[in-house]
Design brief:
By secondary structure, the protein is an alpha/beta fold. The chain contains three helices and 16 strands. The protein folds into two domains: 8-77, OB fold (Dihydrolipoamide Acetyltransferase, E2P), CATH 2.40.50.580; 80-229, Trna Endonuclease, Chain: A, domain 1 (3-Layer(aba) Sandwich). It has helices at 83-92, 152-166, 193-204; strands at residues 8-16, 20-25, 28-33, 49-54, 64-71, 74-77, 104-111, 115-123, 126-135, 137-140, 143-146, 170-177, 184-187, 207-216, 221-226, 228-229. The longest helix is centred in the last third of the chain and has 15 residues, at 152-166. The two termini are 29 Å apart.
């Protein structure tokens, strides 16, 4: 995924009302949109370096969007809206070895009455639903975790993936770790017990679990290497 415009660096001041962050840029404090509804545990420290994007849309009330936070010299992508773009680029360029040379990629595909999965991928092995989750949490060295807060939406997606499996679809959850300092991934059982239980149930119902980290550059964010999963 490429950034539309060059990112602007600043210093984190505070987050409030869930979707707002104050950022100091060149001694001026601006208010930016925070597109991450999670807790962003461990990242929201005053004076952490951050990067924001500036919108070209004249109708937007908030011109800036929080994209990246640097914590202890590690860049962490916090814009959850970027995650599917990162994965879409990876699918189109065969960067995910489990989905090399797809015949068709359909983003935001409807399943049932009230569910949309992030991708429906068709290849020579059949059709597969992929649900993508953005990961920023790391409480232990080299270990990424999900979720960072109770996720009713994530729970719903797991249950619907199980239903899709019963209808002969292959089912995947792809955890995208928007940082590059982790070698392992695990479910944060202590943060969301119900999600952890549903996750274990889904594995018994043919859920495939993938986890990749990301590589950052001035140009954009790319899916990088596969991470070991500890269940």
């Amino acid at each position: 995924m490429d950034f539309k415009n060059k990112l602007i660096s600043g210093l984190f001041v505070k987050r409030y009302k869930r979707f707002f962050v104050d950022v100091k840029i060149n001694n001026q404090v601006i208010t930016a949109h925070c597109p991450n509804t999670g807790s962003m545990h461990g990242l929201l420290k005053e004076n952490n370096k951050v990067w924001v994007s500036k919108s070209n849309n004249p109708n937007r009330k908030l011109k800036y969007t929080l994209e990246i936070i640097e914590n202890q010299k590690v860049k962490v992508g916090v814009n959850t809206h970027s995650t599917n773009k990162i994965v879409h680029h990876a699918l189109n360029n065969s960067l995910i070895k489990e989905f090399k040379y797809p015949l068709e990629i359909k983003p935001e595909t409807k399943f049932g009455k009230n569910t949309r999965f992030d991708f429906l991928v068709t290849n020579k092995d059949g059709k597969a639903f992929i649900e993508v989750k953005n990961v920023t949490l790391s409480r232990k060295k080299k270990m990424a975790e999900f979720p960072d807060a109770v996720t009713s939406r994530g729970l719903k997606h797991i249950n619907e993936l199980i239903n899709a499996s019963k209808q002969k679809y292959k089912i995947y959850i792809l955890f995208v770790v928007q940082r590059d300092d982790c070698n392992f991934f695990s479910i944060a059982k202590d943060i969301d017990v119900e999600y952890s239980k549903a996750f274990s149930k889904a594995i018994k119902n043919n859920l495939n679990v993938l986890c990749y980290d990301c590589k950052f550059s001035a140009k954009g964010i790319r899916l990088n290497k596969k991470i070991k999963i500890k269940i």
